[in-house]
UniProtKB/TrEMBL annotation:
Keyword Phosphoprotein in record: no
Natural source organism: Wandonia haliotis
Protein family according to the UniProt entry: Belongs to the ribulose-phosphate 3-epimerase family.
A Pfam family this chain is assigned to: Ribul_P_3_epim
Entry protein name: Ribulose-phosphate 3-epimerase
SUPFAM superfamilies noted in UniProt: Ribulose-phoshate binding barrel
Class of the enzyme per the UniProt entry, highest EC level: isomerase
Keywords: Carbohydrate metabolism, Isomerase, Metal-binding
Stated role: Catalyzes the reversible epimerization of D-ribulose 5-phosphate to D-xylulose 5-phosphate.
Catalytic machinery residues: 34 (proton acceptor), 174 (proton donor)
UniProt-listed Enzyme Commission number(s): 5.1.3.1
Amino acid sequence: MPIVSPSVLSCDFANIQRDVEMINQSEADWFHIDVMDGVFVPNISFGFPVLEAIKKHATKPMDVHLMIQNPDQYVSDFKRSGADILTVHYEACTHLHRTVQHIKSEGMKAGVALNPHTSIELLDDIIEDLDLVLVMSVNPGFGGQKFIKNAVYKVEQVKNLIHKRGSKAVVEVDGGVNLSTGKELVMAGADALVAGSFVFNSEDPVRTIAQLKEL
């Protein structure tokens, strides 16, 4: 059974507490929260006040994905705002090892995300320090995009690297996840699935989450 992490980027912002409570009551495992700065990606999303508001009502871990430049500046702030897992982009970190150690020193789990064009091999030197690898199956920045098929192969590659290096990292996939792509990803070795519009645009989000759990 995969970990299911619904992406609150796709929730109804006017009813965020209602949607948070729906996730609490569902079979979802985590809350996936995308933070974008309009620089690293061409979109702007949540800041700290929204994270703190979600944390107030969330009964499950907050899986925070930073699509921002200079994430090091804000690691402590994200801890204070309630992040349990903090994922940074490989492409945004000049000193990735230092960033990962900083996240861990704050008591959070550390993840690294890879854009669709970024090679898995670049994680070879850091994989043993990671708690999570996030494979982007769309170009980051917007919800509701079409799934990039190569992500299935990348999941297999990450899994092989994790086994080879004795890492305990979880493999998460974000972008275009539905029941058919989700099934392919789980078969390839994905441990966690992020689903946004597929969950929140469905007629019965609780049932949709349950179906993802069954994959």
